[in-house]
Amino acid sequence: MTTPADLHDVRDPELPGRLLTLERDELVPLLRSRADADFALPVAACPGWTVRDVLAHCSSALIRVVEKRFEKGVFSPECNDRDIAERADWSNARIIDELERGMTEAGPVIARSDGRLDAVALGEWVHAGDVRVTFGEPGAYAGRGLPEALTLLGTITRARGHVPLHADLDDLDEPLKLGEASGERPPGRYIGDAPTLLRLYAGRPLDGAAAYELAGVEAAELNIFGD
Q1: How far apart (Å, rounded) are the C-alpha atoms in residues 171 and 168?
Q2: Whole-angstrom distance, CA of residue 34 vs CA of residue 219
Q3: Would strands 188-192 and 165-169 be described as parallel, antiparallel, or unpaired?
Q4: Strand 176-178 and strand 188-192: pairing?
Q5: Which pLDDT does position 4 carry in this prediction?
């Protein structure tokens, strides 16, 4: 993985859909192979939610994108809880079916948007990592979609004017430049691996993560899903 940092400067409208497709092809077979009891496991990254709840949230969010249902308060905690409750009587298989449909059909809709929906695709990818951690599966916050996730992270953090950071990643030749580049604040610096960086930006627990160095910025400032 040797994507130059400069390639992250322009939004690629097809990128969120590619990330969703890559994750769909890995996650859906994994989910279909698990026993029903596994869907009742608690997810540490999402206190109060089980694997089933996380998947119901993911599938409902994507179907909202597909169907362009963005009423007031959409994607708020209250909205998320309602979406999960609406699927309380569904079988696990039905939730997976909806998730697969959403991961297939949401990409083109996101591509036609102005970029504000890009974070939905990244959030889905992060939640797939949450589920892998719960299952004890390898590749949490990594896998085939990692290069696309890093590029999308760069696009989102710049669009939001997020705190600047230069990340020296173990498997990139050049530093990954994240956040705004106005020069008003000197960029922080991260040294470590990509999955741990993504955990920091997603506000995920670091239990079992690789060691890293962070200077010039607090870890809490990096969280893009905590707003």
Answers
A1: 9
A2: 34
A3: parallel
A4: unpaired
A5: 40
Q: State how far the alpha carbon of 146 is from the alpha carbons of 71, 87, 174, in Å.
A: 32, 30, 16
Burial of 112 (0-12, 13-18, 19+ CB in 10 A): exposed
* CA distance linking residue 100 with residue 83, whole number of Å: 17
Return the pLDDT at 9. Answer: 64
Alpha-carbon span 179 to 217, nearest angstrom: 12
- φ, ψ at 11 (rounded to 5°): -65, 130
Task: Count CB-CB contacts under 10 A for residue 111.
Answer: 18
Instruction: Select from 41, 142, 136 the least CA-distant residue to 92.
Output: 41
Contact 169, 192 (CB under 8 A): yes
* pLDDT, mean of residues 165-189: 90
pLDDT level of residue 10 (50, 70, 90 thresholds): confident
Within 13 Å, how many C-alpha atoms sit on residue 83's CB side?
A: 27
The runs of H, that is alpha helices, within 33-189 are 51-67, 77-86, 92-111, 118-135, 146-159
Whether 169 contacts 176, CB under 8 Å: yes
CA distance 93 to 109: 25
By CB neighbour count within 10 A (0-12 exposed, 13-18 middle, 19+ buried), where does 212 fall? middle
